[in-house]
Amino acid sequence: MILTRPSSGIVIALLIASTCQATQSIEVGARLELFVDDHLIDTMTNAKLTLHNPVAREVVIRHDAAWEGNTSTGHTIFQDGAKYRMYYRGTWHGQENRPKGAKLPGYLCYAESEDGIHWKKPELGLVEFAGSKSNNILWSREDSQRLWNIPDSLGLWRERVTINCSVFKDTNPDCPEDARYKMLGGHCHSGSCAFKSADGIHFTAMSQEPVIRSTLPAHFDTQSTVFWDSVGKRYLSFHRAVRNGLRDTVMHSSMDFLHWSEPVFLGYTGAPPEGLYTNQITPYFRAPHILMGFPKRFVQGRKVPNLSNYDDGISDGVYMTSRDGIHFHRWSEAFLRPGLQKERWVNRNNYISNGIVVTKSDESGTPDELSIYSTEGYFSADNSCRLRRHTLRMDGFVSIQAPLAGGEFITKPITFDGKKLVMNYSTSAAGSVSVELQTADGKPLEGF
């Protein structure tokens, strides 16, 4: 259908399905829909889906404490009421960088914030380090028995909880209060075990054996992710596995957090095979039917000359989305580039943290923003591993864009609840947006 175009901007045609056509339409209901893929798009003319890059902000936390180390990573960040919570691992690479008395494989650490920007490391008084409990450590190898009640029979398994753990607040309406916070963590080859907590600080084991044991060539030595899927009414967990010689991601599902399905490899329609070191998959809180992932793309075999690398390989962050947890639309363009900092071109930097949170904008009179976080200074010899905040406008991951000369797109037939459709858009001073509602057979609706 040809629409009259304005002198500049984009024209949008929304096809509204009647009751008899509802079986062929997409049911939107009252939910927010994002144009992060072509799920709702039928045709586009002189317009395209455009990936947006986050804006680098300040360093929010420096891992400069003796128990944190030069390879602190694996951050999970979420908002919990008026508080923001952060869980991460403190580890070292290289005997010369490890402080006296520090034990491998490291420590599970905790930080919190009132705004997602200014963070503090509370003195928890739980774990002794160098003769003092004045630190923000939640777990250590020596305290595994006291904190987690994990038997010695599991051997090395109990030493690796800090490496791949993922903590989340369980929004399952049937979740008991003493398990409101949950965690998966375990040995890099044995699997993941389940933990629970009433306050997000004091955890106990829910099982005495790993609840996820992959039958695939798998590595649990990078951060796994886990959450309650409010749309599918199930728990989902994603962890690393190997496919065709490349690092990749598999999904497990569970109804009770203790019994998990066999792993299923993710699919990436139209995307080339690439090494994905982490996955960072989470439901988007404003549209939980859309899962968003921020994998660290590991490009093995590349190395920047004259930089001190532990090994070859450089990384950036990519963006992907899914509506079923299995089939993902993954952008080949980088979402988060290493940029101009030399140390971010060193192997294993640019880990995007697990979690998307809302933060205040520092520009007066502007809406709240989305914040994500990424590591830099990884493998540094001076213990300067740190976490930087990056921001996007609300829902601003991907948009449909047209040039000033104009463009248009037409949706697939949709049905929705209520009497109003709301659109998030942005133009230049000279740009404009026009909208037309059509029947499913392309006829304009009078008055719209």
Rg over CA atoms: 23 Å
Structural class call reads mainly beta
Structural shape: globular
Strand content range: 35-45%
Number of helices: 2
Strand tally is 33
Distance between the termini: 16 Å
Written description of the protein model:
This protein is mainly β and 448 residues long. It has helices at residues 144-148, 161-164; strands at 10-16, 26-29, 41-45, 48-51, 55-62, 73-80, 83-90, 107-113, 119-120, 137-139, 166-169, 181-185, 193-197, 203-205, 225-229, 234-243, 246-254, 264-265, 267-268, 275-276, 282-284, 287-293, 296-299, 314-317, 320-322, 327-330, 357-359, 369-376, 386-393, 398-401, 407-411, 414-416, 433-439. Strands 6, 7, 8, 9 and 10 form a five-stranded antiparallel β-sheet that branches. The longest helix is centred in the first third of the chain and has 5 residues, at 144-148.
Topology (SSEs and partners):
Layout: E1 10-16, E2 26-29, E3 41-45, E4 48-51, E5 55-62, E6 73-80, E7 83-90, E8 107-113, E9 119-120, E10 137-139, H1 144-148, H2 161-164, E11 166-169, E12 181-185, E13 193-197, E14 203-205, E15 225-229, E16 234-243, E17 246-254, E18 264-265, E19 267-268, E20 275-276, E21 282-284, E22 287-293, E23 296-299, E24 314-317, E25 320-322, E26 327-330, E27 357-359, E28 369-376, E29 386-393, E30 398-401, E31 407-411, E32 414-416, E33 433-439
Parallel strand pairs: 1-31, 1-33, 2-32, 19-26
Antiparallel strand pairs: 3-31, 4-30, 5-29, 6-7, 7-8, 8-9, 8-10, 11-12, 12-13, 13-14, 15-16, 16-17, 17-18, 20-23, 21-22, 22-25, 23-24, 25-26, 27-28, 28-29
